[in-house]
Amino acid sequence: MGEGWRWRSAGGALLRVVVVWAVSTLTLLALAGILPDFQLRSDNGESITRTAVTAAWGAGAFGLLSALVWPLVVRAFLLVPALVLGLLVFFLNGSLLLLALRLIPDGGGAAAPETAVVVAAVMSAVASATSTALAVRDDNAYRRRLSRLATRRRRRRGRPADGDAPPGTVFLQLDGVGHAVLVQAVKDGLMPTVARWLDTSHRLTRWRTDWSSQTGASQLGILHGSNHDVPGFRWYEKDTGRIMVSNRPASAVELQRRAALRTRDAGLLSLDGASRGNLFTGGAEQLALVLSAAARRGRGNRSRAGYFAYFSDPANAVRTAVSFVAEVGREIGQSVRSRVRGDRPRTRRGGLYPLIRAFATVVERDVVVAAVMGDMLAGRTAVYADLVGYDEVAHHSGPHSRDAAKVLERIDRAVALMAKVAEHAPRTYRIVLLSDHGQSPGETFEGAYGLTLKDLVRAGCGLPVSRRAGRTRSGAEARDAARHALLGALHRRGGEDPAEEQPSPGPEPIVLASGNLALISFPDLPGRLSREEIDRRHPALLHTLAGHPGIGFLLVRSERHGSVVVARDGDGTVELPLAGLDGRGPLAVFGPGAADAVRRTDSFPHVADIMVNSMYDPDTGRVHAFEAQIGSHGGLGGEQSHAFLLSPVELSEPVPGGGEPTGAEQVHTVLQRWLDECRGEPFGPQVPLRQVPPHQVEDPRQPGAPGEAFPVTGPDLPDKAD
């Protein structure tokens, strides 16, 4: 029976090759008849028979070159930035076609370079579609092919045979998809796969984020068990003189080092794990598109490994490149329609944004999904992958927009595809969907009030503001508020001449935005400034900020009362000790747990001199981002603070007896418990780090090398979620 099966399998494979070759030949003939700059010719004339033979030779040569040469070319181009690699796909494929035409032994062909690009793209797409259609029609052959692939990979890695391995776990992070958005998408029929799971196999749990509700803080806590001392997406560290940015490779690797030092644990994925499309490794050895790995030097840098596995198939490359171009066109069309309709709120969507969106929603999605499917077929124990498309689109189109809804539909199809492949894996897989935060809608702070937060800070410090901001009503109000606050401060000091009161000399304050959270630091003074020191230096600043209608509250340290929350109260401001706040006061509007989240951040060594959270309207769910985003996250207020866990019912409840996890570190504990349940092991750290002095903790950038701080340089990467 085994011998007969092998012969039938070989015969089926040969038949599929012949069919694909025949379809490719017909496609080549059709293109030669349609395109004026593409010709097929033979030495013995232009008879149909001889031309068909020439086309067959050309199709065969192109297919063979695609199989043999393409992987080598793609590997060479992995040194090129990923975005450029995607744009080179068409050129590379066209070059292979021109080479194939020159290799035809009987006659040849000719094509203009631009025509060769078109012909090669069509040929790859047709061959891929034909091969896929044949596999779909023969489901048994498809299953056998997947099974053989899984068996080969498993044997190479010495893995147990089918049925002997405990269940594996796949964590799929839907970046930026809040609990409310997921529930509404299921209700609207946008995510049928998720809806079916909710009806049959999974439970949905909401969890509350930390004050810093952004991917850097959430994913660090989820994967490494600690996001201590991550006060925002961007923050200034006075002791090192650096600006930390969560999506810079240098910052990401430093944050991962600090988390490992604090927990003495390598991470959630340290035992036979894979990390795909994430900011951090989670301790995994198998990496693809992981930001912290991008900072590694030499052979340890595997951040682009996933590109080769995916783009080594020219059909994948062409399909993704075509989808990339289509997504760019889709974004341009949606942006134009938004302007024509006069949608409000609206933000700028020009420049490089269409390319950035297409990379997040197409290239990164395709590579990550392919990597996860490969991980399941290889039988890996734990996989954590991040799908970032929704978050990127929601930032610029709004979390409840039609544009974002379309992305959710495509994400659901990707989840369904991965679930289908899991059926052919050598072990059972439990798939967990989760998010790292949500998004809250609202017009930007600048759009609502005509000036940026930095303009407002400068006005409060008595520094010049931009002429445009100064002419706005809000700018005039800011100057008036600063003037009144300054006069009040001078009156309390004994009535000095206002003309003689000037801001203290020194560098300007650093204002860094993290969605609707902002961090203000005075770089020329060491340590965390107190409220009293800020008042002596800039008497009007805190009153100007706290009294503005676009700001919800401030957090500062007081010499007399400890840390205090300063907020608007009628025509004035109120100052309350943070230690005594509970469900009442200025933080009550932000919901249960807000005071605890603020208190936790207040304990961080690198908390800013002034922490600023925008206003929040509980009736509309609106916040005001301090950067150019109409869907934002990073602080407190609304849907951004409520993420979700969608877990199989075979796993224990996230919080025994019901309830919601609070903070990313508690989510890490939940996911670790689920991994241990699948393995049948007691809960505990997976791979503790070597017990070495803190200054010698292994640096994830360079395995085996002592870690050391290094400056954060270079521009921010595209802000996918943060």
From TrEMBL:
<protein>
    <recommendedName>
        <fullName>Phage holin family protein</fullName>
    </recommendedName>
</protein>
<keyword id="KW-0472">Membrane</keyword>
<feature type="transmembrane region" description="Helical">
    <location>
        <begin position="80"/>
        <end position="104"/>
    </location>
</feature>
<feature type="region of interest" description="Disordered">
    <location>
        <begin position="679"/>
        <end position="722"/>
    </location>
</feature>
<keyword id="KW-0812">Transmembrane</keyword>
<keyword id="KW-1133">Transmembrane helix</keyword>
<dbReference type="Pfam" id="PF01663">
    <property type="entry name" value="Phosphodiest"/>
</dbReference>
<dbReference type="InterPro" id="IPR017850">
    <property type="entry name" value="Alkaline_phosphatase_core_sf"/>
</dbReference>
<dbReference type="InterPro" id="IPR002591">
    <property type="entry name" value="Phosphodiest/P_Trfase"/>
</dbReference>
<dbReference type="InterPro" id="IPR007165">
    <property type="entry name" value="Phage_holin_4_2"/>
</dbReference>
<feature type="transmembrane region" description="Helical">
    <location>
        <begin position="55"/>
        <end position="73"/>
    </location>
</feature>
<feature type="transmembrane region" description="Helical">
    <location>
        <begin position="12"/>
        <end position="35"/>
    </location>
</feature>
<dbReference type="Pfam" id="PF04020">
    <property type="entry name" value="Phage_holin_4_2"/>
</dbReference>
